[in-house]
Amino acid sequence: MVTCPYPPDFVHPVTAGESACSTCHEPLTWCQCGSANRVLSRYCRSCGQELGAGAEWRLARGSAGGSGYLKLPLRFQPNLTPVTPNLRLDRKITGQPVHGFGHLCFPVEGGEVVVVRESDLRQVAVCKSTSTEVHEIGLAGDSLLMAGNKGLESVELLPLLTRGIAQTAVIYPTPIIWGRAQTLTVLPDLGQVVVIGETTVAAVGPKGGKPIWSAQRPGRGGAAIIKAGQGVLVVEESGDYWSVDPVSGTRRWHRQMGRTIAMRAGISSWDHLVYLLDSDGLLTLVQADRGGNYPTAHRFTRPYGIACNGRHVYVSSFLGLHRCSPMEAAGMQIGDHPLYSPAVITQGAVFVGTGHGALMMADQGSERHQFKAGVQGEVVTTPVVTGRGVYVGSETGEVALFRFAQDGGTV
After folding, report:
1. Tell me: the pLDDT tens digits for 291-300?
2. CATH code at 314-411
3. Which stretch of DSSP H or E encloses residue 154?
4. Do the domains 80-184 and 314-411 sit in the same CATH topology, yes or no?
5. What is the mean pLDDT of residues 360-372?
6. What fold, for 80-184?
């Protein structure tokens, strides 16, 4: 019997008597993680075989009227077709692109954001920030938000796009917050945009920038912010990490890690757990509601990104993609290409760009993986996955599209 690695408050054992595990041939029993209509990870409780993610399952009614999940065949089928020619932005991409309203937005050097139509990779607009560097962008409602070295700015993008654009439009955003803005996080459920400045963390409304709350930072240098558990967690490069009530702005607690954090690798969360890496590459778990931190047995060389799906953690490093579980001592390396950005886990697979300009796709349940040639230069941002396909952008400003197959594109 395999010990379930999940806390009991969001895991529910489910049994399907008419199905059997393909490995041990025992009656299939699995862990259901997530809500009743969105199951995100399962594995056989008899032998521990990974059963796949939500893309390989469908919801069905049991004979007794209760709900159950019937397993569809688990196959790793990288069914993507490259679309040529690639789009060339002619400028370096400086931050993670975002997707919305059928368009992609790329922050580029010179303090601009290029808006590209998803369907044909046609450039339709350029947002010219007053900042000379745009560190991060986000979408909140119909607004595009830009955090740069001169502050936070906003532009109502959706009305412009729905009117239709005959030629590339130049847009000038409206300043919301003056002063250096390192990063931003959009909290759509609360109607807030949380921004990390040099000395403060502030939440504002996405339209007009109405102040909601602010808190003083205990540290300096790089920082990251994420919504986890009941609060907003701020992780400082210095090793300080603290939680803020997103309604009142009251600091809930403040802890110190005792070691510096590798901010280039970012942070990731699942439910009330936050995963991060210290400067020595040690994977650490933080309990978002209480603040406890728990170092694991996993250490990585030159990590550049982290992503998780509840059961597994995927770390991108100079040596390749690593998959591990915080509750297990052993891990697995998938491929040996250098990776400089976090992976994205969706469509039943793991997607990440490589330092050689390729798109790497890995199976969630095994070490099977495949590479597809993509762009010139290093991929330093996470691929964007939409219903149309996978978009990969290189540091040099080249963007490639890989379309899903006509049968639905499940990988």
Report:
1. 888 888 899 9
2. 2.40.128.630
3. strand 151-156
4. yes
5. 81
6. Lipocalin (2.40.128)
